[in-house]
Amino acid sequence: MNKDFTLSTYRSLLEAFLQAGYRFLTFEAYCRQKQKSSAQDGVSEPYVILRHDVDLRAANSLLTAQIEHQLGIRASYYFRVIEQSNQPDIIRAIAALGHEIGYHYEDMSIAQGDVPKALAHFEKWLGYFRIFYPVVTVCMHGAPASRYDGRDLWKTKSYRDFGIIGEPYFDVDFNSVFYLTDTGREWDGYRVSVRDKVKQQEEWIRQGRTFHSTDQIIDSLANGSYKRQLGNAVMLTTHPQRWTDNPYLWTKEYLSQSAKNIVKRILLWAKGY
Fold first, then answer.
1. Quick check: 152 and 129 in contact, CB under 8 A?
2. Number of Cβ atoms within 10 Å of the Cβ of 195
3. Residue 110 CB-density burial (10 A; 0-12 exposed, 13-18 middle, 19+ buried)
4. Where in the sequence is the domain holding 261, given as residue range(s)?
5. Longest CA span, the chain
6. 74 neighbors 115 (Cβ within 8 angstroms)
7. CB-based contacts of 5: which residues, under 8 Å, 6+ apart?
8. Does residue 210 belong to any structural domain of this protein?
């Protein structure tokens, strides 16, 4: 059994998908193929849309990007504006490896719900990230402690007006794409997630399509049960800050996320979920 949330385990996960016959796509590539095709999702199967939300410790993201590059995989990396995520040298290095760069937006929280101010903030920082890459996709940052849902920014204006072709929570049909996210530092962390979840997960639970550890996903890919549990189309989302071979950082992240999960449960209880 692999120690979970290490870089070696992450490599094993990617290799297991490749060995099972999946191909990897950036979210940008997925969106562009949808535009070109009359098919429902526009992409031949089986495939994995590989997405990374760079919330903290940007240096970890360069390590996962290097592993993917070694395996011939391109992924999408979404960066926040905060210093722990927005590290220009790292963003450049990841882009140089052939990966997609996107904006991990949280403008509604930053602007405290002031929509005109939030839109101006979005436009400013989208322009900033386009210095590193011709950004055409963005992804909401969940900001569980905030009262504001970042997606509410688009109730009065379309992100397509900014040249954006895709946002995962709006532009992926999760009726046909299975969603795997390590939110909460576990693959069934939707139980403690405030916003990083999709409505189809309740049905997937009833169908037995759930995983807790990375080893369980790898085993499913190895023994053939993935055809039922994962299906032919997957969006795989990780937070690279969680994945490390450094014992100190691994323990720190484990303890920190365990505490955060308790807080998230309280927030969900308070909101009546």
1. no
2. 15
3. buried
4. 7-11+22-172+236-270
5. 52
6. no
7. 182, 185, 214, 242, 243, 244, 250, 253, 254
8. no
Helix (H) or strand (E) segment spanning residue 10: helix 7-19
Question: What residues have CB less than 8 Å from 109, skipping those under 6 apart?
Answer: 141, 143, 146, 148, 150
Answer yes or no: is 105 within a domain. Answer: yes
* Residue 56 within a domain: yes
For the cut 90, the answer to whether the pLDDT of residue 35 exceeds it is no
Domain membership of residue 133 (yes or no) is yes
Number of folded domains that form the chain:
1
DSSP type of residue 12: H
Identify the CATH number of the domain in which residue 242 sits.
Answer: 3.20.20
Residue 248, SS3 per DSSP: helix
Proportion of the chain in helix, strand, coil states, percent, rounded to 5: 50, 15, 40
pLDDT 10s digits, 138-177: 999 987 778 899 999 999 999 999 999 999 999 999 999 9
